[in-house]
Amino acid sequence: MVRPGGKTTGKSVLCFGFPLSIFFIVINEFCERFSYYGMKTVLTLYFTRFLHWEENFATAIYHTFVALCYLTPILGAIIADSWLGKFKTILYLSIVYAIGQAVLSVGSINDLTDHNHDGTPDIVAVNIALSLVGLILIAFGTGGIKPCVSAFGGDQFEDDQEKQRRTFFSLFYLSINAGSLLSTLVTPTIRASECGIHTKQECYPLAFGVPAILMAIALVVFVIGSKMYKKAKPQGNIMLEVSKCVGFAIKNRFQHCGKEFPKREHWLDWASEKYDKQLIAQIKMVLKVLFLYIPLPMFWAVFDQQGSRWTLQATAMNGDFGFQIQPDQMQIVNPILIVIMVPVVDSLIYPLIKKCKLNFTPLKKMTVGMFLGSMAFVAAALVQVQIDKSYPVFPAAGQAQIKLINLGSVPATVQFQPQLQSVDVAPNKETGYMTFETSKLQSLNITSGTLNKIQPLDLLEEQRYTFAFKWDPANISYNLIEDNITSKPADGKSLVRFINNSNFTVNVTMGDMAFGELQPLSASNYSVIPNPGWSYTINASMPNTCTVDSKKFGYGAAYTISLDDCVGKKLIITHFEDISPNTVHMAWQIPQYFLLTCAEVLFSVTGLEFSYSQAPSNMKSVLQAGWLLTVAVGNIIVLIVAGASAIQKQWAEYVLFAALLLVVCVIFAIMASFYTYTDPNEIEAQFSKEEKEEKKDRDGNEKEAETDSRL
């Protein structure tokens, strides 16, 4: 059937000069990339915040998943070319993919095993098992279809539609970036919202559920266009042929190790007994490029940490840009810069370099890209140093810390006995945390007005305390409060507690959080603020109900709010900062993203271009497999370092990766200097010419033999 606006050429339906089928493929790719990048963007925070995995373990699992995603394309290519064909491979593995996304979404439901409704899964192993099964299915799905979709789109064009085919690949690449860009913006926003049946928490089921829905849409769209596709039958996989040839050459070489066997120019020539010279020559060209691939995994080990280490770094930073940026949303900087940088570099930078008569070869571009990748991690290390400086210092073994809060209206002097230190505290003011040896500090002597009070102390090691006190005409009231905080709140979360500075028992709530009844000068436990950066309404009965809006809370902070008085139903409060909020702004990550994006443009785009230019026409899939394998190995390097490294400081790990990539960059530059560029088309043409001459000679000999036989 011919649709309006289309015309038929053979079996193809054309729309604006393009096969109509390719529009289904482009929409399918957009939805699939949205699904993959949307899920992958929030994955690290899901591991650390929902499953409560330690950062190194979360990083290792994240990179194991990414490595698997780049190992499975080899399997997908073999299945498509040798067994099912591209269409069925995409169809079946997309079903696996969609199931995996759905299983991951179900596995992230907090209420799945939370039978006592306390906000924590009772059997977290169920959530972990479902999550890992989902990720494995996703890895096989996305990896398996990766080498098939673009090639299947290219198959839809006739031989005389080369211009349209090039336009299709541009649209295809645009759909990848559009899906990545949009999902990196949307899913962290969904993740940061709250949902749940019994308890409200970060909404991972919906953050994974939306990508699952998009993958289902991708599958449906792909199936709708099935009758319009040109479906080429499987014709055998060249990778298997190459593997067999290489295997035969190695086997044959070891079977002929004696001195009686003459040496051959190249070890692959030992396959000449079974395979033709052209195939052997083509494999030689491929192996020459694959040899250059050996150092490349180190670049990917650095590059793919955007989604793991850099996202974790952003959780300790301030994301206030006038509107709140989530830590995992910072990854959006890369696709935005890619869209800007690729045309700028191609149309401006490269022509400018050419005008300067500099021989900026593809391998030199890749070397510069590796150097910039190394510098990106130096920038990340410098940012991490500033973050570490902003962290509070907590008491070590044998130490304790005390902070003083004067809740009264009269200045006070506190002496730490015996004769350790004396501190003046103004009304409604606090001191910073002061560190003391627990074995030496015995008591506090408080003097306020004409009154004096001594408080004996027996402090626990490695603990923080708040000593709150107030003066009234007849007495000095006080309370020593154990803070129960041993580190800065992780993942950008903030904590708040209340202290009752009135003479009444107070029942206090803030937003949907209930802090219970507080006796005079008693303090509540710390509670997590659902959305730092927001202001909340505080309600307190003193004994009449009074309300007031809190100030906006920072990220990664801890606060004590003093409930002081109630005037005309307005609650009078004082904010005290126990731990300072994140002060290093996320904008400081932009330079490292910029350097890494420049590195990607020079390294990745150029690397693929170089590989294709140096590969014989029938061997491009072998180099594609080799390229994807370097990405997988790079991620394996990260998980090994994350799992085995004894480095305690994150900035030192960044420096380690920067140094390793710099060393590899030097090695690659040396290897590249010995590389001789070849033109596979010329070599193939030479073989074709020789083959024609041999055929001509054979035909001539056959004619002579036929003439002789007649005589």
From TrEMBL:
The record ties this protein, via PANTHER family, to:
OLIGOPEPTIDE TRANSPORTER-RELATED
The UniProt keyword set, sorted, is:
Cell membrane, Glycoprotein, Membrane, Peptide transport, Protein transport, Symport, Transmembrane, Transmembrane helix, Transport
Provide the transmembrane region boundaries: 12-30, 60-78, 90-109, 124-145, 166-186, 206-225, 285-303, 332-353, 365-385, 625-647, 654-677
Instruction: Give me the ranges of the annotated region Disordered.
Output: 686-711
According to its UniProt entry, the function of this protein is described as: Electrogenic proton-coupled amino-acid transporter that transports oligopeptides of 2 to 4 amino acids with a preference for dipeptides. Transports neutral and monovalently charged peptides with a proton to peptide stoichiometry of 1:1 or 2:1. Primarily responsible for the absorption of dietary di- and tripeptides from the small intestinal lumen. Mediates transepithelial transport of muramyl and N-formylated bacterial dipeptides contributing to recognition of pathogenic bacteria by the mucosal immune system.
Question: What family is it from?
Answer: Belongs to the major facilitator superfamily. Proton-dependent oligopeptide transporter (POT/PTR) (TC 2.A.17) family.
S-adenosyl-L-methionine among keywords = no
A GO cellular component annotation in the UniProt record: apical plasma membrane
The GO annotation for biological process reads: protein transport
Against SUPFAM superfamilies, the record matches this protein to: MFS general substrate transporter
Q: Where is the composition biased (Basic and acidic residues)?
A: 687-711
Entry protein name: Solute carrier family 15 member 1
Q: Which reaction does it catalyse?
A: L-phenylalanyl-L-leucine(out) + H(+)(out) = L-phenylalanyl-L-leucine(in) + H(+)(in); L-tyrosylglycine(out) + H(+)(out) = L-tyrosylglycine(in) + H(+)(in); L-leucyl-L-proline(out) + H(+)(out) = L-leucyl-L-proline(in) + H(+)(in); L-alanyl-L-aspartate(out) + 2 H(+)(out) = L-alanyl-L-aspartate(in) + 2 H(+)(in)
Gene3D superfamilies, alphabetically? MFS general substrate transporter like domains (1.20.1250.20)
Name the membrane topology term: Multi-pass membrane protein
| Classification lineage | Eukaryota, Metazoa, Chordata, Craniata, Vertebrata
